[in-house]
Amino acid sequence: MRVSAKLIAGVIAAIVAVAVIAAAVMWTVPVLKVRNFHVEGVHQLDPAQVEEASGVPKGENLLRVNAREAASGVAGLDWVDSATVSRDFPSTLTINVAEHKAVAFVKRDNKPYLIDDKGEEFTSAEPPAGAVEVTGSVDSGSPQTQDAVRAIAALSDDVRNQVAKLEVAGEYSLTFTTKDDRRVFWGASDSNDEDKAHAFATVLKMEGREWNISNPELVTTRG
């Protein structure tokens, strides 16, 4: 049985027309609704905060959700460094969040302002465990602040938990003070940070109140 080209063309046209009509109906009538939110990557934020910040209500037509706009709303939250939003058919909106990692903080007017691992201040809140107070020449995003957070990030968790603060006196002058009032001069943040971190861990096990580990191969002490 021979099928004419005209018949085949007609069938294809009919299929396309049905698909277009179906797509139009699904676009205008909320057949695929947002019934669930799946929030990933949050540690400091409540998932409910993230859902609200997206601006997408339950029952919204999933096809018509503006993912970029929703992500922008979530990114406006203080703790959010970046956010992406995607549709998981048939009924879920997935929001993936990357939070700021608070490694340090500064105090102004008796309020702590958190600093992330890029050296940027991002919110005023109670510092999480392991965040180190930074004093001295500290401006959000400045090279000195970036050096400070790199030095802090180089420390092991055990050492960081023994640190009370880090004084930034200049580009080449970082000094840690421990919770038992010992001072460790780090110097500049540079390619030797990892070796300095090892030296720091070592001197904390030794007698002495003041240490200079700016040259980790020639550690000196005073007092």
TrEMBL record:
Alphabetized InterPro entries for the sequence: Cell_div_FtsQ/DivIB_C, FtsQ_DivIB, POTRA, POTRA_FtsQ_type
Annotated localization: Membrane
Alphabetized PROSITE patterns for the sequence: POTRA
Keywords: Cell cycle, Cell division, Cell membrane, Membrane, Transmembrane, Transmembrane helix
Transmembrane segments: 7-29
Highest taxon above the source species: Bacteria
This protein's GO CC annotations: plasma membrane
UniProt name for this protein: FtsQ-type POTRA domain-containing protein
